[in-house]
């Protein structure tokens, strides 16, 4: 249920776009982004930073889109968010105790992973580069193709590309799960 809730603003944007067009979809995205922010706050008592950044970005660029009747502003939203993500990954490598990629990917595993810090830094750098590449790709598609193609790219292209980028990492990390060791030093089984 939680994962569905996370995807709801994107699904609403896509559905409203297909029926009513870019401007009603933009308004729907703005409302859905804040609804997600408040729903998560209500359920957990906390505000997720990514929800807040997404909602504010949707509000600012959505308002500009509607006020100036120019879809380019909302088309920049993925680029802004992906750019922020790239910067966050880069900054975490320099200023945080652990790179952001490590915190995100390790949280997907219940077992401890045997990955050296230098490899975590490399993975983190790959994520930063990946988000920068997607940000640039979004600008290219938004600037060279129709709204319909851009919406399909935003909803399906970015999601599928990120899944395909993540998948080999998950398999590799799964192979790095530390095995449990018996008290006598032997592996179980």
Fold and architecture overview:
The protein is mostly helical and 189 residues long. It folds into two domains: 1-75; 86-177. 78% of the residues lie in helices and 0% in strands. The protein contains eight helices and no strands. It has helices spanning 2-20, 22-44, 49-68, 72-75, 77-95, 100-106, 117-144, 147-174.
**Which sequence of SSEs, written as H and E, runs from N to C?**
HHHHHHHH
Instruction: Report the biggest beta sheet as strand number plus sense, adding barrel if it closes.
Output: none
Strand content: under 5%
Cα-to-Cα separation, first versus last residue: 36 Å
Q: Could you say how many structural domains there are in total? A: 2
Which blocks of ≥5 consecutive residues have pLDDT under 50?
180-184
Quick structural overview:
By secondary structure, the protein is mainly alpha-helical. It has helices at 2-20, 22-44, 49-68, 72-75, 77-95, 100-106, 117-144, 147-174. It is globular.
